[in-house]
Amino acid sequence: MKGPSLVLVALLLAPAIGALAATVGPPAPEPLQLTSADVPAWLVGDTWTLSLVVDFRNGTDWIQGGGNVTLTVSERIEVDAGTAYLYLYNSTTTGDLYARGRITDPNTGTSIPLTIGAGTLSGYLWNERGDLAIVKTNQTFMATGSAEIPLIGTRPITIQGAVTAAMQPPEEDFDFPIVPGDSWRVSTTTSVLGYARITVNLPPPLGDYTIVQPLSMDTPGSMLVSATAAESITVPAGTFEAFGVHSPSVDRWYAPNASNYVKLESHAVMSPTQYVHLWGNLTGYTLTPPAIDVSLTLVPTKVAPGGSFVAIVDTTAPGAMVKLTIPVTNFTAMGATNVSGGLVFNVPAPWSDDSTPANTDIGSHGVLIEVMDGVRTGYGAATISLLPLDLTVYGLTATPNPTGDGLATDLRATVAVTTDVAAAGPVDVTFVSEDVDMNGDGVMDLPIDTYCARGSCIGTATVQPVLPGSPVDANVTWIPSPAAIPMDVIWSAVVDPRNQYRELNELNNIGRSTVRVEGPNLTPSNVTVDDGTTLHVFDDPASLGFVSPVIDVTPGRTVDLIVRVKNAGIVNASRATTLAL
Fold this sequence. Notes:
The protein is mainly beta. Helices cover 3% and strands 56% of the residues. The termini are far apart.
């Protein structure tokens, strides 16, 4: 932490705003007996205001301050991110900030007391609509105040800057549905780019003095988050029944009735003189009344990866068009509500893991509903969760075995699930012409792409589905070409080599076997030498050591040599060979 520490105020406010954008929904607070909370559907115009207090120290540098931040949902957008198609909420952020403290001038090493009396903050925030994960935040700030300059005294200062933070994968702080006792891991890399500038107005003839702090860093992070039972939380905006969502450094309380978290505390203490504390409380919020009431019920709520479920849509708009979307797979379906405003979809579930592996599921993915009735629109959301399974591979065979150099060989492996949960989606099995687990610990020694890059991947077979009690075979054709013949070649079959499925046991995904690769035993079996006058026949060249007696030939005469080649081995000759005479 170097340079003007006041930058931290804005940097801390920006992530806090991001977390604030992780909730939206229904009516005003009232006591609830909450057992879980699913992802809300934000509406344009939904607004939350949070008061923040910051206490920061880094050695002799310290800042105490805070402010108020308002988040307002402004639009729904869709962004092609290259590797994924994102369905997002775009929200605006506005606010004020204040601070006092002491910072070190990075140019002179001088410690400067300062006070910020008036500051503004503005920007935007992107959240995924399916799980409210934070994709990107941008904040611009400007503030004025005063600083105590040695030998000069109190002088006006201006602070301004901009910070953009992008999260990859998006930071999914809330693994919906939130269920007490559940825990999940959030892993993301935050890329920050921006600057902060402090300008000190010095008296003539000195002119203004400027300190510029560039901001550019990529910070990987991983934290274990857990949910606790709902409790009554009182903040300036009211009293809410809220779930505790806790990690080692951040505590938040999420209230479904406010469609957001209503309180947060963050405490990062590195030493007695190096720490960051942040407190936030909801001071007010407004939820836009829906033009069309929409409820979405999924049956069941948990399915096998790639399985199917029913989406039951109830609305107050009979005869309206309805679009169902699963953002993670970009699956869409269209339909129309009946006279009662209802509609039922049969939907294929995703099969891939998400970025927040939990102890109750291997993936939780948002399902979005958009209802269109003339100029009126309505929105709903719910979460489909994937049940944990376990894939295994065994019974490796090669046919024929022994096989021959250059001979088409069938490699086969059996794939099964050891759980009562099926793998209903596609399951890849990659065959590799070497031992991918040399130490036998059940983990590939190298990533599968490394083996493929060096030409060891024979091929990938895809099977679907893999049902409990019903193993399936996967096979590829291999044309062996070892460096030497004969050779015993160890080959491997790896199920789910790129970990599309998160499994209960990842140590039984590799099978290994050995195939003997031999070459044909080729030998000259009959040699005839015709010198034009005499026919010399050698029925058994091997008995002569493959060297004939001396044959007298008239100079200039054409000699015909006829050789028959016999395969004395057990493997066919599958490719051309060379005979030297």
